[in-house]
C-alpha cells in the first residue's frame, strides 16, 4: 500500500492550480510564464511525481507493455536478444515485461496470464512452447498480437526469421572441406523449430556429400553448458574427428568435458558451435561458430510487434536476418 | 488497443450470471454445483480470462510488482540473482519488473519513474546509482520502500549483506600463502561499495603481511570480459606473479589477453576472480575465486522487500550471507 505523490501535492507546492500542472506536464507550456513552467517541471523531478499509469491504462486499455517469454535468461544469446528488445521498446515508450520460463510449462502459462492481467499490448515468445495452439487461442481471444521467434506459427503471422537451415549447411560444408568424415552432433532433447532446421541443414549437406550421419551420431542433451558437459562421454564413444554443438553453450560444456578427458581441441578433436555468443572469443581455442544477430533479432522483434500493436490491419510482416560462418581456431584439417 | 475477454463474455458462454462467475473465481465454490464450478473454471482456461489487473491495482493501489534495477543482465552473476528474485516473487504472487541500467544514469532514472508509474510496491536496486540521495528522495516521497544491494544506504534501511571485505581478505591470504609477493589488482573504474570493500579487504591483508601494493599495481577498467581483456597489457607491465580480478567476468577477459600474449595460466601467471559464476568451472584452467550466493541473494532480497511492503513498521531487517574461497587450478605456488 503505497502513497504516491499526486498531482494535487505538486500543484500545492508550486502554488498553482491542478489544471496548470496538468497542462504544463502535457506539453502545453506556451500558455504559462516560463517561470511557472520551470517551477512545475523542477518540482516534478524533485518530488518524483509520475502520472498514475493504471488510471491511464484503464482508459486506453493499454499498458504500453510487451510481454517477453524466453527459455533462459542465463544464456548470453538471450541476454543480448533481450537488450535489443529493451532498447527498441524504450525508444517507443514501451516497457518489456521479461519472463524466463526455464522450459517449464506451468511457468509459461502463469506468465502468459500475468502478461494479460497486466495489460500487455503484445507478446514476443522465444520460449519453446509445448502447446502453441493453446497459447494462440488465449492470446487471440484477448486480442493480443504475438510474435514467435524460432518457431513455426500456428497461423500465418508476423515473423522474424533467421535462416537456420543455411547455418547448419554452412557448418557442414566447412567440416567436409576440412576432411571430417566422422562427426557427432550434440543436439537438444526438446528441439524448437530453429534447432530442427539447423540439424536438418547440417545432415542434408553431409548426406548430399555422400557421407552418412547415423542416429548413433546424434547425441541428445539439454541446451546448457552442463548439458554439453554431461554429453561428452557419449559423444566421444562414437570416435568422431569433429563435433557440431547445436549451440555455443553446449560447445563450452564439451570443451570442459574434453579437457577433463585429457584431449586437446583441435589437435585431438574439432568443435563447432552455433550462436556466436561473446564467450566464443574468450575460450581457448576460440570457437568456430555461426553468427546469429541476437541484438538485431531483439530490435526487429520489438519493431514488428509495436507496429502490429499500433496497427492490427498492417499486412503480414516478415523479416529475414542473415547468418554467417565465423572461422576461428577450434577446427583442424583432417588428413586421413 | 486490445479487446480482452471480460467476465461477461465468460458468464454468457457458461450460461450463468456474472455474480456466479465472480464468486467461483474468488474461491466460493461451495455455493454452486460441482458441474457449474467445473464448467466455469474450464471456460476460464479455454478463453484465457484474466481479471483486469489495472482496475484491481487502482483500488488496492498496488501492482504486486517489484521493480528491479541491475547494472547488466549479461553478467551471469546478475542472471542468477534475478532468477532468485523471480522464484521468490512468484511464490508470493509478485512479479519482478526487470531493468538493466547499463550504468547509464538517464536510463536509471527513466526506469525508476516507470516503476513508480506502474505501481511498483517496492524496489530492489543492485545498480551503481550515481545519486543515491535523489533516488531516496523520490522513492520516499512516493512511499515506495526499497532495498539496496551492495551499496551503502543513505539512511538506515533493510539490507542484504555479503561480507566483501572478508572475501577480499580470503583471496589475499591465499595468494600470500602461495608465495605471491608481487600482485596486480584489476578493479572497476566506478566502484560500488561492495567492490571497494573487496579491494580494501585485499589490500589491508597484504599490508598487514608487510607486502606493499602500490597504486601502480591497481589497474582500473570496466566490469566486463572486454574490460578485463583491454586491461591485460597494463596489468602485465607491472610484472606480477598473480592478478586479482575484482570479478569473474574480468578474470575471463584476462584469460583471453594472457593467452594471446603467449603466456600460460598458472605456470607463467596466477589468476583469482570473484563471484564464482558457473563459467569459472568451464574455462581452462578452472578459476580459483570467491563464491557469492547469487541465487540466495536474490531470494533473500525479494523476501525482505515483500515483508517490508506488507508491513512498513517491521523493524529494520539485516541478513548477512556467507562467502567462501573456492580453490581450483588457476594459482601456482611461487618459490622465489
Automatic annotation (TrEMBL), chains A, B:
The parts of the chain that form a coiled coil are none
- Provide the HTH cro/C1-type domain boundaries: 3-40
Domain HTH lacI-type as annotated: residue spans = 5-60
Alphabetical UniProt keywords: DNA-binding, Repressor, Transcription, Transcription regulation
Q: Does the keyword Chaperone apply?
A: no
Example GO molecular function: DNA-binding transcription factor activity
Q: Which NCBIfam families match?
A: lactose_RbsR
UniProt-recorded name of the protein: Transcriptional regulator
Taxonomic source organism = Lentilactobacillus diolivorans DSM 14421
